[in-house]
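Appendix C reproduces, verbatim, an entry submitted by the partner laboratory led by Prof. M.T., so that reviewers can inspect both the input and the predicted structure.
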Amino acid sequence: QVHLVESGGGLVQAGGSLRLSCAASGSIFSIYTMGWYRQAPGNQRELVAGISSAGSTNYADSVKGRFTISRDNAKNTVYLQMNGLKPGDTAVYCCDADIVDGMRYRNRYWGQGTQVTVSS
């Protein structure tokens, strides 16, 4: 069994910062791409940022220059540093990871999501 657990969401004023963490646990052989998605009420889920196992990153245009994704491969953890938060960033944020488990099966796993609310 493989699990992703997020932490770090909460309520913050516009212009503030939050740091999200997502730790993968269980029988893990290797992890390829990890990423963060978000979904606001009435909106489709959108990719916020992704990072490869080698550290290459990509971002949604709406967060470039404000958000930074990083990962600690030794801890099987991905982070999302969010600065300059805006009310439009309010959403449930979920992490995902492309994981090969101990049985060498490759699947995409999702966390349960963490709420980020930015007040104006």
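The chain has no helices and eleven strands. Additional entries are available on request from the coordinating office.
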